[in-house]
Design brief:
Length: 174
């Protein structure tokens, strides 16, 4: 089992969440018949909530995308690639209640990250698992799969105005 972890740097925009991931490539685990190799690249986009108004009665939502691009090279059939995507707790809080730290460290802004737009499953450790089959080719056969991360700040949090941020680490285990 290999693990590919990429840390998302804190963002600079007010009430935003995650910065850009530096793309990384590593050998991906795959099984099949033939002489082939697999590699994977992981990237993510920023999750910025924009301005948050605690007087608004609805939560503040936005999305980000984690993308896994896997390449199978060589001669092979029945090649299967499998991996799990995890999101860390972040720089404050816990998995059930992630927190962004702002200008007053004693009053964080709560938020969380989810696997669907219904916000029913918190995206945490080993939450999203994917497996798919691909054909190997001498020039390389690349499959790119985007995963949407659904962010939500619950309504009614009266915190000091200013920028809030958290750092999330995306880990792909294969």
């Amino acid at each position: 089992m290999r693990t590919r972890a990429v840390t998302v740097p804190a963002l600079t925009a007010a009430l935003a969440l995650a910065g850009l991931l530096a793309p990384g490539t590593s050998m991906a685990a795959c099984t099949g018949v033939g002489a082939f190799s697999c590699s994977a690249t992981v990237s993510a986009t920023a999750l910025a909530f924009g301005n948050y108004d605690p007087a608004v009665a609805t939560p503040k939502d936005n999305t980000s995308t984690v993308t896994v691009a896997s390449t199978v090279t060589g001669l092979g059939i029945l090649v299967t690639l499998s991996y799990t995507i995890s999101l860390s707790v972040g720089s404050a809080g816990n998995l059930a209640n992630r927190q962004m730290v702002g200008p007053v460290s004693t009053t964080p802004l709560g938020y969380n990250l989810y696997t669907t737009n219904t916000h029913g499953i918190v995206w945490g450790l080993n939450t999203v698992t994917h497996s798919y089959s691909a054909l190997a080719s001498l020039g390389g056969n690349t499959t790119t799969i985007p995963y949407t991360v659904y962010g939500r700040i619950p309504a009614g949090q009266y915190v000091a105005p200013g920028p809030y941020s958290s750092t999330i680490t995306v880990t792909v285990t294969y």
